[in-house]
Write a structure and sequence with these properties.
Pfam families: His_Phos_1. This protein has a single domain, classed as Rossmann fold (3-Layer(aba) Sandwich), CATH 3.40.50. The chain contains 7 helices and 6 strands, in the order E-H-H-E-H-E-H-H-E-H-E-E-H.
């Protein structure tokens, strides 16, 4: 918890720079063209964002949940290395620099509910698996996270499997909103970091800002910070999350009348 103040914080973060946006021909030869890894700059950005979170948030991260997509697993790994680093060397730019960590600081888990939107808006149809099977292996995903941080024994995933290919954009946005609240409710005494995709970060803003907002871009490793008060009463209920900070998320304010017509914000550019 946040210094005993009965506050819970959730940080929702996008993955780093993915290879297929820098090497257009990568997907043509890839065995899993729907699941690109990070480029080196993406790993560096993820590690440096983890350092920024560690230095600037003002509260510790206790638990990390991550989408099963490789770019998110690699992003989470770099961020966890930064958050759990023993010492603070200015020369460290990624986990490849020999960063020593204390894995007891954070527990990490893979959560299907944080996955990419499984539709043609987010994944090019020619890159999606023809049979609709994205073939994620949880053990292999967990192996990509720092040793000693994986909490596979006590955590029960909220979403037991991926959504079906062709889910609606509205359905995906509802999923992101639901998973943020559900994970927070499961671990009310802990601050969470959720590593997901651009659309999920966008939803974390539009669903929790006090005014009507339209998100039009979510940069690599952009993140929002949500906070709520845990009410001390017989029901043990919590207040609603409020957006208290953001980095790398571009949006505009819209009137309620416009929102009634649009219904949902436009997806962030390069939301996958």
């Amino acid at each position: 918890m946040d210094s005993g103040k009965n506050l819970q914080n959730v940080v929702v973060m996008r993955h780093g720079d993915r290879i297929d946006n820098f090497e257009p021909l990568w997907a043509e030869k890839a065995d899993r063209p729907w699941d690109p890894p990070l480029v080196l700059d993406g790993k560096i950005r993820a590690f440096c964002t983890g350092k920024k979170l560690n230095n600037n948030l003002g509260f510790p991260i206790h638990r990390v949940f991550v989408s099963p997509f490789l770019r998110c697993i690699q992003t989470a790994s770099e961020a966890i290395h930064a958050l759990c680093a023993v010492g603070d060397s200015a020369t460290w730019m990624s986990s490849a620099d020999g960063v020593s960590i204390d894995p007891s600081k954070i527990k990490a888990s893979v959560e299907y509910g944080l996955c990419e939107m499984l539709n043609k808006q987010a994944i090019r149809a020619e890159n999606a698996p023809k049979d609709g099977n994205f073939a994620f292996n949880i053990s292999e995903c967990e192996a990509g996270l720092p040793e000693g941080t994986v909490d596979s024994s006590s955590v029960e995933r909220v979403y037991k499997e991926l959504p079906k290919w062709g889910e609606s954009t509205e359905g995906a946005r509802d999923r992101y909103k639901n998973i943020i609240k559900t994970l927070a409710d499961k671990y009310p005494t802990e601050n969470l970091l959720l590593v997901t995709h651009g659309e999920g970060v966008g939803v974390s803003v539009t669903a929790h800002a006090p005014e009507h907002l339209t998100v039009y871009e979510v940069e690599y490793c952009a993140y929002s910070t949500l906070q709520r008060t845990l009410k001390q009463n017989e029901s043990g209920t919590a207040g609603d999350f409020k957006l208290i900070g953001h980095n790398g998320i571009l949006f505009t304010s819209t009137s309620p009348e416009v929102d009634e017509v649009v219904k949902e914000p436009e997806p962030p550019k390069s939301s996958s």
